[in-house]
Records
---
Amino acid sequence: MAGAEILVKSGVSFTGNFMFGFPEETIDDMRATLDIIKSLPAANIAISKFIPLPGTDLYNEVMAAGAFGGEPAYEHLDLFSNKYHYTKYVNREDFADIFSEIHEVVDQKNKLTRKGPPKPIRPAAKLL
């Protein structure tokens, strides 16, 4: 976290980006990441769920594991779908619970750190 603290002391605002729901991820992994989110001095935190994109090794892995029950439909790749679930070691209900907890922490943290749009460091060049 030393790098994040150096950024903050230097006046640099940054966003922490985190992704959850990888096939090999455990509930302990997710809780450890949540602990990092809680302590990270970022101006904003962004979170998302893992989506296995066609053509990637992870897509092939979840296909081989039968994650889609055949061919994927759009709802298998939609973050808000109830069909979303790719973790081997975390069941669907526990994943929904931990992601909800993560989302709540991130939402509260972002509300505390947001102070309007970022200010430019120098004036933008005039366009002709």
---
Amino acid sequence: MAPRDVVRIVSDPIDTSALMASLRTDACGALACFVGVVRDHHAGRSVHHLEYEAYPPMAEQEMRRIVEEARERWPIEAMALVHRTGRLEIGEASVVILVASAHRRAALDACDYGIERLKKTVPIWKKEFFEGGDAWVVGDARDA
């Protein structure tokens, strides 16, 4: 990982603007960003809120590996993977992937790679709360 790369599990709201500012330099012509937000439905149910759990040392180690893999594949200046834990309300950001690069294609591809790998390999658990109950969400990112 490079000095400006950011990998964090956080319990407070994610400040996407501050994160962008910390990664951007004059050498960067592209900032690609994915922000995952809590939606109000899943699997035909009305969702009230979510709770995320993680063991930060283990999750952040895997997140660092994702950044290193992205750096091997694309010429990127900096990358951030930040995921929130705890209770999140509808509309709140749960995850932010941000990539700074000289060119858009590298930034967009690395950003997409980051969220896809994070959803598949990082040990973060999501529990949905809906009218009448709650359930742990299990499965691939394309299913959720």
---
Amino acid sequence: MSSKIKSLSTLVCVGEIRALVFDFDGTLYESNAGIEQQLRPLMVRHAALALDVSIEEAKRTLAGYRAKYKSSVLGLHRHHGVDPETFLRDMYDELDLTRMEVRQGLRFELERLREKVPLIVFTNSNRSFTHRAIKLLDLVEIFDIVFTVEDNGFIRKPEIEAYEGLFRSLDLIPGQVAMFDDIVSSLRVMSDFGSRTILVGNGLRPKPSFVDLHTGEEHEQAPEFVDASTHDLVSFLRKMNAELEK
């Protein structure tokens, strides 16, 4: 692992990697906070209320819109006049964040890292929740840019358009970007684009295993296409900073 960290740090030092991108949920805080597990039921319930239909009908409707438009909320907007931003804000406002915990040392290591390279958040979550959670995690003023689902027209990872929007907004080619994410299927897309990828354990599986909460797929170890992996993000960043400061 140390050789992979050294290689990644070297690419930052020589300017080949010009941005470090971090997924948010399950990456900058652990998934045992229960946030992701709350989202699906909340979305279905809010859709059922907005459309005045049963929970089962809301599930079918959302699935159909996701398949057709690559975004459930875009379908709600086009067919029912539901405002996507308001819908998501109201939904995310109901989340229970009491189990979200600050990772000790994370702010310090990110601050050190930011002196060498811009830090970006790239999340499927909405703007109101992401900034509220960033404050709770004591990460305010750490990230140069925070990309939320609104910034890509409500298209979410792992849809190709979301990544294309990221690269376009950063004005960087994929090879100039490295991404930290707990979702293997998301990193696969980034790797296919040509970005460096770092798989982060989301706290739901012991080392060396990982679980992809998007697909439900279990991984006994990091897939071969992943450039590096860690179950301890703070330690990984600390070692990166040590390499960068040599």
---
Amino acid sequence: MLPLTDPKWKELKGGYKTLYDASVPLSRLERGEDVWKDLWQELHHQGSVGDASYAAVPHLVRIGATLPRRDWHLYGLLSAIEVERHCKSNPDLPSWLRESYKDAWRQLLPLALDDLRVANERYTVRSILGAIALAKGDLILGALISLSDDSELREALERDSAWSELYREEN
């Protein structure tokens, strides 16, 4: 894991493909500040992520584990970074980060399972389920759950007549 005090953070690029020092908002998050808007905006932009996004993942999981409450922001951002990491237009995971990145996903699974037991808010539940699928190595299911909104899921279900009938009966 790249220490938050390492000067290398200033050389990493975020979702805009420009330099973004994620150590600053990560340090603020660690102090309990709400920096999710900044992290979402800079680490993931319209399907683009960068090496700063990847380097932030181990810290997001580490800090997330200490938060009194975890919601959709943590699981959604981690999932977005992981899904977009596989996009050809995004950079490969740097070799110097590979082990801590994969370890972060292994550590995320028990957190997500614990949070799923008590989560009631629909976006948090969906984000957790997407993150669980990704942590278990199912990129397609994780992407479907994490990146689809209600209208896209309804449309997919309505293409199958059996699901379509079920859907109409319940609503």
